[in-house]
Target: 2-hydroxyacid dehydrogenase
Amino acid sequence: MNATPVLQVGGLLPALEAELTDEFDRRVYDQAAPLSPEAAAEIRIAVTSGRTGLKADLIDQLPNLELVANFGVGYDGNDTQALAARGIKLTNTPDVLNACVADTALGLLLAAFRQFPEAERFTRAGGWAEGRNYPLTRRFSGSTIGILGMGRIGAEVATRVEGFGCEVLYHNRRPVEGSSAEYVDSLVELARRSDALVITVLGGPSTKHLVNAEVLEALGPDGILVNVARGTVVDEQALIAALESDALGGAGLDVVEDEPNVPAALLDKPNVVVFPHVGSGTHETRADMKNLVLANIRAYLAGEELLTPVALS
Ligand code: 8YV
Model:
C-alpha cells in the first residue's frame, strides 16, 4: 500500500519530520516552487506549526485538503476562516505544554521582578568583583498577579504563583466556573490592580493589541508585563514608549510581534527580559506535542475521532 502523502508547511521539530518520513509520504512545501495541480490534488493532510500555518492562497491551491495538524496550541498562523469555509479540520496540541509554558511565565516573572539576568551579567562583567552592589529590585513573593486569559495555561500560572503567596486576579471574556481567582471584568481595571500582568490568551485577530497604551498605563511605573502567548496581543510600540518614559516598571517576554526580530529598544534595558520563544521548548514537551500531532493524523486516517480538534466557527 502506498504511504499517505502529507504536506509539511514550514520547519518542524526534526523528530516529527523523521516520523512523518517513516510513516507517511512527507512532502515539503516550497513557496519558491509551488506544487503542480497534480501534486496539489494528492494532498489531503498538511502539517504545520502554530507560527507558520496555512494561508488562504495555499489552502486554495489544495482542492482535496481535509485536515491540518498544527504543532502548537496556538494556531493563529493558519487562516481559520478559509479552513472553516471549506470544512477542513484543524487540530492543535493543547494541554501537553501547559506546565512548561507556565514554568516559563514563572521564570519571566522572577527574572523581571528581580532583574536576575541583568544581575548575572553584572557579575560576569566584574561589577561585583569591583566592590559594587547590584541595585535593589522588586519583591515578587506576595505580589498581585493579573492573568489575561484564564484558560488551561493561565490556570497553571495561577497555581504556581499561589505557591509564592501571590493573590491572583484574572480577566476573560467570561468568568471561569470553578476558578478560585477573582474575576475582573475590565482589562484596564485588572492592570490597575495588578503588580504584574501575565498574558496567556490565544493570538490571532480577536486579541490583537488587546494590551494597549491604556492598559500599560494602568499597570503603571512599578508594573511588570509578562507575555508567554503571542507578540500580537501587545501593542509593541506602546510597550516601548511606556518603558522609555518609565511609565511601566519592566517586561518579561517570551514572544514579540515580528519573531525572531526583537526591537533594539527592548534589548538595551535592564528591566526587560526577552526569551527566544522557548515556552514549550523542552525535550519532554516537544516529544508530547509531536506524538499528539501524529496521533491526530492516525486517528483521522483510521476514521476515528480526532483527539484535539479545534472548534472552527
Ligand atoms: C511552539 C507555541 O513554540 O504552542 C504554541 O502555540 O507557540 C509553541 O509551543 C511552536 O508552536 C513551535 O513552533
Remarks:
- The chain has a mean pLDDT of 97.
- DSSP finds twelve helices and twelve strands in the chain.
